[in-house]
Amino acid sequence: MFQMNFSRGFFRLWAVLTAIWLVLAGLIAWMNVSDATIGRYQYALEAKGGVDNPFEGPPRPTEEIFAKPSEARYPPNFSRLDYQYWQGFDDAVKAGTMNRVEFPDATSLYVSTAFGQSEAELVCRWFWEGRWRRRLEALGRQGTLLGWAVIPPLLLLAAWFVGRWIVAGFRRA
């Protein structure tokens, strides 16, 4: 009769279950990152120097209130739009005051038409170049999930080693 090697069998079972567990956690993290980065964005225009509140007083042309993106003092800032604001931005696209640019990573960007095509292309280039930074920031917010992906298999492995050590203590010399 053959002898069963429980130790090797349980270790292989642990390895397979850990691999499945980590793949599932990785898929969940990837879906969370995709949900956090895919969507509609806007470029935050920077007010010109001397303009305290750009929306105060009578309506003025955009060029009088905001600086061109190429002349901005601060790095470009893109904010993700919640769905309740989409209709207002889509209305601005229909009115011709904004363009909506689609990107291959399932994101879109609303860009003002007030400064011309070259400024809009510059903003779009900045947005596209920042896609990996946005993904890495979203991945950084998955720390808790990734912790829960690693800690249970390690605890199970530690319990297995402790159990083997205890059982080995009862064997005959």
Spell out the key features of this protein.
rod-shaped; 173 residues; alpha+beta
Would you tell me the structural class of the helices and strands?
A: alpha+beta
The helical percent reads 40-55%
Distance between the termini: 24 Å
Oligomer: single chain
Q: Kindly report the average pLDDT value.
A: 88
Estimated radius of gyration: 27 Å
Q: Which sheet architecture does the biggest sheet show? A: 4 strands, mixed
Low-confidence stretches: none
Shape: rod-shaped
Q: Beta-sheet strand percentage?
A: 5-15%
Walk across the major sheet and give the strand order: 2-1-4-3
What is the count of helical runs?
6
Would you count the extended β strands for me? 4
Q: Helix and strand string, N-terminal first?
A: HEHEHEEHHH
Describe the 3D structure.
The mean pLDDT is 88. This protein has a domain at 35-129. The protein is built from 6 helices and 4 strands. The chain has a 4-stranded mixed beta sheet, with helices on both faces. By secondary structure, the protein is an alpha+beta fold. The chain has helices at residues 6-37, 62-65, 86-95, 117-129, 131-140, 143-168; strands at 39-43, 78-80, 98-102, 107-112. β3 (98-102) and β4 form a beta hairpin. It is rod-shaped, with a radius of gyration of 27 Å. The two termini are 24 Å apart.
In short:
The chain is an alpha+beta fold and 173 residues long. It has six helices and four strands; from the N terminus they run αβαβαββααα.
Secondary-structure topology with pairs:
Layout: H1 6-37, E1 39-43, H2 62-65, E2 78-80, H3 86-95, E3 98-102, E4 107-112, H4 117-129, H5 131-140, H6 143-168
Parallel strand pairs: 1-4
Antiparallel strand pairs: 1-2, 3-4
Helix pairs in contact: 1-5, 1-6
